[in-house]
Specification:
single chain, 108 residues, Protein-Tyrosine Phosphatase, Chain A, five-stranded mixed β-sheet, globular
């Protein structure tokens, strides 16, 4: 597990795979947020694969892909809603940085 806790109920991570979702579920994660666009690099796991794996485990999945540190107000609002609902979130991108940027924007 290479996850960084940045808030009480929010972790960020580099690219995850389906096997890590069982661990996320065991930790009490409610929602997985993907901030990585599909096909960003060869061999990357497609978001649909992780969405299906999340569904099999009863986890919610949001696909909020970011190009660099750029995000929309809709993305900010969705992260704010997760926080207000006290959801336990694991967000990922290539390195975890974009996920952190979006969370910080939502909490500003």
């Amino acid at each position: 597990m290479n996850w960084t806790q940045i808030a009480q109920n929010y972790w960020v991570s580099p690219q995850i795979d389906a096997s890590q979702l069982t661990e996320a579920k065991a930790m009490g994660i409610d929602t997985v947020v993907c901030n990585r666009p599909d096909n960003e690099e060869p061999g990357q796991i497609n978001s649909d694969v992780l969405r299906a794996a999340c569904a099999n485990l009863g986890l919610d999945y949001l696909f909020l892909p970011m190009q660099g540190p750029n995000f929309s107000t809709d993305y900010v609002e969705q992260i704010q809603q997760l926080n207000q609902a006290d959801k336990k979130v694991l967000a990922y991108c290539r390195s975890g940085h974009r996920s952190s940027v979006l969370y910080n924007a939502a909490m500003a």
